[in-house]
Design brief:
The protein is of the alpha+beta class. 25% of the residues lie in helices and 39% in strands. The relative contact order is 0.25. Pfam families: Polyketide_cyc2 (PF10604).
Amino acid sequence: MATDRPRATIIETGDRLVVAAEIEIAATPREIFDLLADPEKHSLFDGSNTVQRVLSGPKRLYKGAKFAMAMKIKVPYRITNEVVTFEEDREIAWRHLMKWEWRYRLTPLDGGKTLVREIFDARPSRSKKWLEITGALKHNPILVAKSLVRLKELVERV
């Protein structure tokens, strides 16, 4: 059965601890960045279905901001993230206690479009073994790509 659903391109990074994907979105970097900088919206585009809702933090993120999220992987838990990169309309990244990092880079394109690249970087992780045991390294390329598709659908209202 064919589908018209958009697809993100998984990018080979050459490092098993770094996962990346990208997608073109028919919106300006400002429109996309506004969603990424609002932690209340993160559950709407999370491709892993683990982000449940924001528990605390600012309405709009900034460098050094901390925000707590209700999460669920079989059982509910809470995780606090810290924004480590914040370049308005260009790049945002956050990480939690285990130091895994989620980064979004926005590149403006002609015609009011934006290339969005999401990067999951586990190199600074405190427990690379945990990532292997849980299968996260194996599944993350697909989950990152799903997040980008959801972000595209959310922004474009497809």
